[in-house]
Amino acid sequence: MIKKAVILVSGGLDSATTLAIAHNAGYACYAISFNYGQRHQVELESAKTVSSSIGAIEHKVVHIGLDDIGGSALTDENIDVPQNTDKGISEGIPVTYVPARNTVFLSLALGWAEVLDADTIFIGVNAVDYSGYPDCRPEYIEAFQTMANLATKKGVEGHLIKIETPLIHLSKAEIIQKGIELGVDYTQTLSCYAPDEEGKACGRCDSCRLRQQGFEAANIPDPTLYSSP
User: Partner of 73 for a Cys bridge, out of 58, 79, 180, 228, CB 3.0 to 4.6 A?
Assistant: First the structure.
């Protein structure tokens, strides 16, 4: 019997690598992305390209309005995305944290997993280079998995759904090296919080900095197109 998995795919480096890991492990992969009112919706084009390139059976884009509640630089035009020209990374929980985002995303992925009769959900959260996001920590994922199996028909009937986080303890360099081993084309990915209209990365936000540092540490040329150095 073919194993089915739902994979959260944002179009970024981490989610592309996660999809490649799931595909390489023999799962029939169903990719899910979210148009949640983010100002960088160009990432959804990357998600579509990545999902097709890596071999997802289906790529679904779910529309939700997290911009209706705002509270994040990614969903609220009145909050600026930090541009760290000193090449530093923000400390603490940054303004790019989107309230309840991973909880909403995982809940919708959980619903689709039930519909597909999939036993696994993959998400590319990372606790090493996680930029202070509380919903990327191992204890959060463990708590969500417990809730998922209490809240679903599959779980109650004994068919447990597992949340897989293959990148959770990897550095950005190790993630990139793993992706290269699996043939991920990182030119198809977009990690930037504030890309320009052409889809070029800003090169200054925390996500761009982490990506740049990862390629440098991995001793692999960064293929990203940046609008500024």
Answer: 79
